[in-house]
């Protein structure tokens, strides 16, 4: 959040979350003209977010492609403010006679309606017929560019942002503690730090979405990715899965144990409320996406340099989830409109540039951790090489990477999910009532 180039607001476009899967304006066919990368002297449009710190890198990739292509691609920065955010403008653009040729998106739910109505190019045959291209991306992240039909519609074009358990290593050392390997360890740490008048976890409850990370990871560790996959697929009674109820009960147990302190209901994340508690040593841990690292570097550089450490979310005894699986935000993607003026040129651009050395090196130097295979040595050029390598290796070995629920689900779920989960944390809603209410959202 804040001004960091890797903040969740930039990466997820929080202002536009609500419009991610709003109904499309009109249907269109699945076929479109494809003039070929060397044909016609056409100019294509690649839509991205305006005021995104990485746009100069996107422009450099287009400049490189345009040098050798008859069809040119122009970067079009779309405002993500005012009466409508990027996703609203994208929805209008995709329903117009001249949709963008390449469109920046978040995979999964953000492209579901476009894929379902034939507005996007199915990239599956292009990837499977070119194993070198397909294998140039980390599998769990490439998979998150699929729509509900299991076909690929997005190519990774930015850094990865899994959710990590951040902790204050200086504070832990002073108290002779270790980061939790198991959920029982986590509960013991909660009890210990609470007894020392140190808040165990920072939590930006006011902004709602930070609460969701707890539900996402607890469900993942208890049941694996299939539990949420059933919710995403709209299967009957999926919200009422016993492991969803188990996770919600564990959240309320954590609240009872004062895991988040006693004043979390008034703490925000966006304005550095939770981050400041963590940086000042008033909270020992913080479950947050990787943007927390860059936010701490920006706002509390001494803490980031001397005290900030990170670990995976702990395992749960008896849980079916793979301990290496992660949740969060796999990356951003480029998709191709099926009505592009030159589908072949758009494909040629994605093949040449998105895993290309120049583009990837620029992302790394800007602090991103690209979803590209074989980067270990090159990450030494990152501003924070230790952290970048940790994130890369974490995602590299992840068998699954579940997209944040409020991004993956259709927009109609966003407000009920946020609002009702807040009530669960505040003990104003039982787990049973939560799953009942969510099961009624259509």
UniProtKB/TrEMBL annotation:
It comes from the Bacteria. It holds the Pfam family SBP_bac_1. This is Extracellular solute-binding protein.
């Amino acid at each position: 959040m804040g001004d960091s180039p890797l903040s969740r607001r930039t990466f997820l476009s929080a202002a536009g979350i609500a419009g991610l899967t709003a109904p499309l304006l009109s249907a269109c066919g699945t076929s479109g003209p494809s003039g070929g990368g060397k044909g016609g002297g056409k100019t294509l449009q690649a839509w991205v977010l305006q005021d995104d710190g990485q746009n100069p890198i996107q422009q450099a990739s287009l400049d490189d492609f345009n040098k050798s292509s008859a069809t040119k691609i122009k970067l079009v920065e779309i405002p993500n403010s005012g009466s409508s955010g990027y996703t609203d403008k994208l929805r209008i653009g995709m329903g117009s006679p001249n949709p963008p040729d390449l469109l920046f998106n978040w995979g999964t739910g953000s492209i579901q309606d476009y894929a379902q109505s034939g507005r996007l190019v199915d990239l599956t045959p292009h990837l499977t017929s070119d194993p070198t291209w397909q294998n140039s991306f980390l599998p769990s992240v490439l998979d998150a560019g699929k729509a509900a039909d299991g076909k690929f519609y997005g190519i990774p074009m930015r850094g990865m942002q899994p959710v990590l358990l951040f902790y204050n290593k200086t504070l832990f050392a002073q108290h002779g503690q270790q980061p939790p390997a198991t959920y029982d360890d986590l509960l013991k740490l909660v009890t210990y730090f609470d007894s020392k008048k140190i808040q165990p976890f920072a939590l930006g409850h006011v902004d709602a979405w930070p609460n969701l990370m707890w539900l996402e990871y607890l469900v993942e560790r208890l049941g694996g990715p299939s539990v949420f996959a059933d919710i995403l697929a709209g299967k009957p009674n999926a919200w009422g899965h016993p492991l969803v109820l188990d996770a919600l009960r564990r959240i309320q147990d954590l609240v009872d144990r004062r895991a988040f302190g006693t004043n979390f209901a008034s703490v925000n994340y966006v304005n550095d409320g939770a981050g400041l508690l963590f940086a000042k040593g008033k909270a020992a841990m913080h479950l947050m996406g990787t943007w927390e690292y860059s936010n701490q570097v920006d706002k509390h550089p001494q803490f980031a340099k001397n005290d900030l450490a990170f670990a995976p979310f702990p395992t749960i005894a008896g849980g079916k989830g793979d301990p290496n699986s992660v949740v969060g935000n796999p990356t951003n993607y480029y998709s191709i409109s099926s009505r592009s003026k030159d589908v072949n040129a758009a494909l040629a651009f994605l093949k040449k540039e998105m895993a290309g050395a120049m583009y990837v090196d620029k992302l790394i130097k800007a602090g991103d951790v690209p979803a590209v295979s074989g980067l270990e040595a090159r990450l030494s050029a990152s501003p924070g090489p230790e952290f970048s390598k940790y994130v890369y290796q974490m995602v590299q070995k992840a068998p699954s990477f579940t997209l944040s629920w409020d991004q993956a689900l259709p927009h109609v779920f966003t407000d009920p999910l946020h609002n009702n989960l807040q009530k669960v944390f505040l003990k104003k809603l039982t787990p049973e009532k939560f799953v009942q209410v969510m099961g009624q959202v259509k």
